[in-house]
Protein 1
Amino acid sequence: MRLRPGSGAKRWVFATLIGLFLTSLGLNLLLFVLIAESPFHYLLLDFLPGWLRASLLIVLGLALGGLGIARLRSILQHNVWPELRTPEGPAMLRAFVKRQQRRQGPRVVAIGGGTGMPQLLRGLREYTDNITAIVTVADDGGSSGRLRRQTGALPPGDFRNNIAALSDAEGLMKSLFQYRFPETNGRDEDEQRNDLAGHSFGNLFIMTMAAITGSFEAAIAESSRVLAVRGRILPSTLENITLCAEVRRTNEDGHIEWVTVQGESNLPKSGGQIERVYLQPAHARAYPEAVRAILQADLIVAGPGSFYTSVLPNLLVEAIRDAILASSAVRIYICNVATQPGETDGYTVLDHLRKLREHVGDAFLIALANDNYTLQTQPSPSTRWVTIPPKSEWGDFQIFSGDLVDAERPWRHDSHKLAARLMEIYATLAERSHKV
């Protein structure tokens, strides 16, 4: 809780300090008088010159303080941390120092969803514990979509993925949280309504926690606590939003037509080029904690993740967008490694930035993109590399690049490469802003 200006707190803090000083002075004087009037008055050394008495007290104080520090150090080494004397000791000490550095790391807000954001979070957690992931609630497909339709609650899938990415829990617990019950072939959704088929255990866990705690946001907080999450996972809004798109496509007669598509899972299947996305309701209220995290952030990151269905839905929440524009933090958009069928076919990095500007203004003028296109011809049969155009075409955009690709899954980022390059860029930009 912050104190309001003019509340008078400072004067009473000062009064308290003066009171403590006067009390100490009084106790010192009382002790002096008691000793002077006792048989032990010689302890005051009043037979010596004043300068000599002061010097003796200073030397005695330094000697006792030094002895105390030496003994405490010995106790720590031999009793509290006996492992430091083993071959693994230096590594343990380095881990302790690293943990302290993470606790003091920059306040990072990551905005997105899907499978892209967990890749970033797994890398970021090596640099800071002060992470806030703001996650889309527009998902209406798969297990999350079924639960959303059946219960009316927010979709838990993206939250589950990010909780697992930031969790310190043992591997078995994380595997349990991510476990998905096998699909039942040949049965439609109505037949599977009461089945576990296709559901993730983590999704069911979150929904159960929501029923117990009484709210979705409390369920996320408690689930994060159970899995020892470092950081926070927050929704961009608590409203039941629907993602809609204006799509341009060619009909059977060869003419261009414009259609409106509703539902996040339907956008990639629209058969045309997505030109604009928007939310229903249009003025969804932002989750207050998400806005507060953005305003307090040192670094705000959008992406990686599905551009139209994971990243933009968060930014279209008006208060989220306005908070980003008002923030003094370093703001970086992380561009996907590969294009996405039905969403960003043929897009370059510059296309992503221009579409981002069309939807949310100048929230992100800086991008981080992959520049390693040499692993194979294309990242996958259905995708293409997202390339960086010549610098002469950038305009007022700024693009940083690096080898960010996962060699085993070239359509995704490598968590460690991505986080390392991101923090390097953040340090450079933060230093520039301090010099201005």
Note: The mean pLDDT is 85.
Protein 2
Amino acid sequence: MRFQSGPATSLQNLGDAIPISLFAVPDLDAGATAGKAIRESVQHRGLAPDPAAWDFLAIALSVITADGISRRGDSPDGWTREIAIDIAVREPEAWASQLLGLNRALGFLTTDRWSLSVRDGGDAIDVPLEPYRYDVDAVALLSGGLDSLIGAIDLTDLGSKLLATSHVVRGDAEKQERFARELGIEHLPLNHNASTERSVKETSQRARSLIFLAYAIVAATCTDRYRAGETVPIYMCENGFIAINPPLTTSRISSLSTRTARPEFLNAIERILRNVGLNLQIINPYLLKTKGEMMQECSDQSRLEALAHVSTSCGRFQRFNYTHCGRCVPCQIRRASFLTWGHDDPTRYYFHEIGKLDSEHAGFDDVRSVAIARLEIEEAGFDRWVGPTLSSSAFADPAPVAAMLKRGMLELGALHDAYRIR
């Protein structure tokens, strides 16, 4: 599919391209829109993002909107799509040299074929005479999930002054605000509000992490530290097992395992940012930790006890009326981490007894996938099971990563043993 994105005034000579209007809702139907609420929030706060960061946001908005419109079921193999987007930016010369890297990074992230191009005419946000700048040391993504909560607790306990950025969605907004308030950190909640004409949207959302990073990148350039010429750390706190996300079975390999926090993707994005002049560093301090270890080693155990059950881990949270399903892989990892932590888990799970032998419990795909992975490890050995996951050049020393993944599988194994899943 072909798209053209940018401010409504820049959308012209479309041909067969689907228009995506950025940062404002046009008077005329533009096919798809995104970013109006973000622009309003930034201007309301008197912020002045770096133009390159605002361009990256335009790119991210274009990508996630096109991702939602392009249905995988319409592609020849039922999954892999070919998506071309011509994007209006403020600094096309700077971004033109990064297109190859961007296309490769997006291809790795979503397992599609991306072809981005840039043109002049990007949005120019109004700069206040006295822009507001955050007096912080770093920016952290605060999703409302357990890992980002632990990350925020640990970082603030280490003395970091944080600015938290969040993607606001129904069911998580109050949690995000509560976590920020109780930790005493500044908070910038945003929502892309991407809207399309299609009633049936693509739900795989493999590109979603790009917009979360874009929020943090924009925020990081609105800090005193950035304006002083210092590197601003952006913390994307994710347990190592989910960050690496090893395919549990051969049927889940590649496109069926998300790559949101894989080092290959985050490293590629950081290189691109630096190449366009953005002095930022993306850090996941928990790459070698399991979720259970994150809970055990959290620096403020009493605060974690008070807030852990409030957090959200489930990818189907809204689908089950804002309740954890209890059976998806993130839910299983969450439940296993509470077991490792050694504390009761007061979280309400829609499917609590995952040991039941029916299609909704032990027979559910994700529960069965973990069981199959355990069996494969038992029969063929852990090294053979994990081998393809660690073949990437991103792992200079794969041994610590392999050790972490092994501990993660042991945590999942303890959960399955507790519910007698075989």
Note: Residues 2-119 form one domain.
Protein 3
Amino acid sequence: MKKLQNSLYITRQGAYVHKERETIVIEHERKKLMQLPIHSVSGVFCFGNVLVSPALMGFCGEKGVNLAFFTEYGRFYGRLQGKASGNVLLRRAQYHADEQKMLEIARSVIAAKLVGGRNVLLRHKRNHGVSAPIEHAVKHLAASVRMARHTNNLDSLRGIEGDAAATYFSVFELLINEKLRGDFPFTGRNRRPPRDPVNALLSFVYSILGQDISAALNGVGLDPQVGFLHADRPGRDSLAQDLLEEFRPWLADRLVLSLINRRQLKASDFITEASGAVRLADDARKQLLIAYQERKQQEVMHPFLKEKVLIGIIPHIQAMLLARHLRGDLERYPPCVLR
């Protein structure tokens, strides 16, 4: 089992990150803020104006530490990848997967996403009572799950997923405390850039979670850029985006809703640019990242392994299970769905 290591998120604008012997050092305005051994870190995530020394870049590549760069909004820029790990036969199996195998994996992932979204709505229903729009959305998602499991081509599957996502997000605002909806209005998904605080939060969490999944895929020897559901596109980790679908509802969406409904974030924690783009202020971004790290440290029962595991380990478990399926050790890929 892979040990859960800490991810290092650097949000201080103007920070300088460099190598000192076997450690990572973070400085700001020539003052040392932090120093920690590289063996205690699995990934370094830099947001906005963060300078990383060439020596540290090489050190991260040598040690297999994921080094990724994002805008202040959380939009992914790029990632440093060291020597490819894993078995070339595994990647060959990934590259040469036939249409039926691609469809089966994509169906599993999308069905898991839709079940996860339905569980988020059912959770709200249990806690807050029946709501006609949410009840309708729950039934629509249940029907979409059945359709997704039986569709025979990827285009139809993508259409089912898109329709179900529109239904899910049409009631997402109802999951926000009624007293807070004035500060956190939500009329649907928008991105690149996000134009309201809720979308800013969702996009940010999806982005950092996607990088965790990319690192996990690299760790077992899979190519994150060659997916089964998302079409290949230069610069996009399509396979990571595939697996991200099953994590969105139960990990990312619930985290965002918790931060809002528990009043851990306020409307004043967001900055609206002249262009209309909305981003988190520095302190709010730090608070979100702390909450994300704390969530990763929580223990849950993995539905396939039937073992208690840390949430932060689950991307690595799912990458391992996908690799086993592609090698032929597992008949099907078992996605992770948590209630």
Note: The CA atoms of residues 123 and 339 lie 8 Å apart.
